[in-house]
Amino acid sequence: MQEEKTESVFETEENPFVLKFEQFFSQQCKKKIEKLASEYPEKKSLEINFKELEEFDFELADSLLENPDYLIEAAELAVKKIDVPMLESEDFNPFIRFFNLPKESQPLLRDIGSMHLGKLISVEGVIRQITDVLPRLKSAKWECKSCGNTYKLHQSGTTPKPPSICECKHRDFRLIPNESEFIDSQKIEIQEPLEKLRGSEQAVNLEIHATNDLVNKVSAGDRTKITGILRLRAPKDKKLVFMRYLETVHLEETAREFEEVEITKEEEHEIKSLALNPKVYDMLIQSIAPAIYGHEKLKESIVLQLFGGVKKNLPGKATIRGNIHVLLVGDPGVAKSQILMAVNQIAPKSIYVAGKTSSGVGLTASAVKDDFGEGGWTLKAGALVLASGGLANIDEFDKMDKDDRSAMHEAMEQQMVSIAKAGIVTRFKTDTSILAAANPKFSRFDPYEPFIKQIDLPPTLISRFDLFFMIRDVLDRVRDEEITSNILKAHKVGELMLQSKKTGKKETQETKELKESITPVIDHDLLRKYISYARQKISPVLTNEAIKNLSEFYLGLREMGKKEGSYAATHRQLEGLVRLSEASARVRLSEKVEKTDADRAIKLLKNSLQDVVTDPETGRIDMDIINIGTTHSKLTAIRNVLNIIRQKSKEQDLVPIIEVVEEAKTIGLEKDKVNEIISELKRKGEIYEKKHGFISPVDK
Q: Residue 624: enclosing H or E segment and its boundaries?
C-alpha cells in the first residue's frame, strides 16, 4: 500500500488565495506566463515584483509576508489555471519567485531574530562561502523492512522523514534512493556588507539554501540580494539553541558596490558646495588622520586613492583598472599603522588586515573541505574579494609569507583571482584598491642604499603600486618639536574629554579649542558620503590639455632614460598618472579631467619617484629599481665584469680575480665595487671559484 502526500488545502477552487492569485495572474502577468510557457523547461521560474502584487491587493501581499509557505503554494496552483495554450501540458510546474519586498521586510543580517521565523524576508550580503551543487531529497520512497510495503512521502526541512508506522505495526523503514525524487541544492554563506559595519563590529553570517534553478547563480565574493523564508535547523546534540537558515525564494546578484550609500538632498547640496570650494583638497588632506602630524603628500595620495580612477570596459571585454594602489615603507614609530586604521574608518567600504596574521588564501580565496559543504569542497572568499569595490588596508606587508604575497599579483593588476584547486577552476572579482604598509628589511632606512634592497618584497609586486612613499624618521629639532606638540595635544584632549565625561562638567574653552585642532575639517560621515557620491555619479573624461600635459611629462621621462640607457618610466606609470588625474577631477565633481588635475598627478608621481627610484650612484630616476630590482648603472657594471671574466676565460682556464679587478679599473669600476659584483655573480651561479683567488664562468 502507498501512502501519498496529504492533499493541499489549496486544491479546491473555493480557496480565496488561489482565486485571488488567479485573478492577479490573469490581469497583470498574462504575457509573462505566456513567455515562460514558451521557454519552459529551460526557464522554470516566474518572477513577480512584490510591489505589483501590493498594488493589486494589499491584503494578499501582506498575507504573503506573514504566511509565505501557504501563499506560494497557492500561487503555484493558481498559475496552472491560467488559460494559456502552452499550459495544457501536465508537466508545466513553474516556481513562483517574489522579489523587491518592502523595506520593513528587509532586515540587516544582525537584526534577524525569532520574530522573522517562517516569514518572507529579503537580505543583502557578500557571498563568503559556497558549496558544490548536491542532490537533495524532495520525495522519498520508503520500504518497510518487515512486510515490504512501500510509502512515498514529500520531504521538507534538513533531515529525511520516514512514515510514522506501517500497516504491519512495524516502524523500521529503508529508503529506496533509485525510486525517490531529488532536486539540485546548494548551500551558501553570506556575510554582512563591510560598509554596514562601524568601528570594531564583527560581520554577521547567515546560511542560505538554494534549490532547483537558483543553484550556480552566484559565486563567492558576489554581492547578492536574497528573498526567502527563515527556517530553523534542529541542533545535533538536542540543545535548546537552534540554528537558522534562509530557504531561498528569489536570488539576484546586485551590482551595487560600496559607493552606493544613501545620501539625502541636503547632504547632496552640502557635498556640491564642498566640491566648489577652492580649498577642498587642503580640507580633505586635513581630514585624513588629523591627529597625525605632517605626511601631507601621503595624505593627498590617500585622498585620491579613496576617490579612485575610472574603471574602463573596452571593446572585446578588455578592462583597465581604476583602482589606485599605494605603498608606504617607513621607519618604526612613524604612524604607518595609525594612518591605515584612520583610513579604514573613513572609507565607505574597507577592510583592515595585518600581513603577519594573513595568509594568501586569507587575502584572496581558497577551496576547503569542511562540514559546511557536507564533507565536500567549498569555495571561500578572502579579504580582497570581500572588499571588492572598496579599499583593503594591509599592514606589515613585508611580514607576509613569500608564497602568500605571490597570490596578490593577479589580484592587484587584473583585479581577479584565479582558483584551480581540488578540481575547482574559477575566478573571483577583486576590484579592490590596496593601501599597504611595510618596514625596511633592517628596521631602519639606510639613505645610501637603493629602496629595493631595503624592503623584503619582490620587484614584480612593488611595480604594481601606483605610488610609493618612504617615510623616514629624521632627526630634526624643529620637526621633532612640532610632532611632539601634536602628540601631547592629542593625549591632553583625550584626558580632558574623559575627565569631563566622568565628572559631568561642561567642556571648558581650552578643551574645545584643543579638540578643534585635531578634529577633521570635514566630518567623517559627510566625507564618506562625499567619496561615495563622487564614485557613483562622476566619470570624468580627459581633456586635450590634460592629455598633452601627461604625454609631455611621460615622454620626457622616457627620453631622459633613453639618454642614460635606462627606463625612467614604463606604461604602468602613464596609466597611474591617468588614474590619479581622474581621481583629482572626481574630488571637484568634474566631468572633465583638466590640466590642473594632470599637474597634481604629475607632482605626486614625481615626489614618489624621487624618493623611491632614484639611483644613489647617478642621482637619476631609474624604474629598473622596482621593475627588475637592480639599478641600470649596477646592471651595466655587472655585465661589464661578466664580459671581462668571459673574455679572459678564453685565454686561460682559471681567471685570477686580481686581473679582473685591474681591467675593471680601466672602465671606471672601483675595487670594492668589482669584488661586490663577483660575490653576487657567485651567489647567482653565473661564475664559480675553483680555488681561492681564481674564478671561471659557468657557461664557458
A: helix 624-627
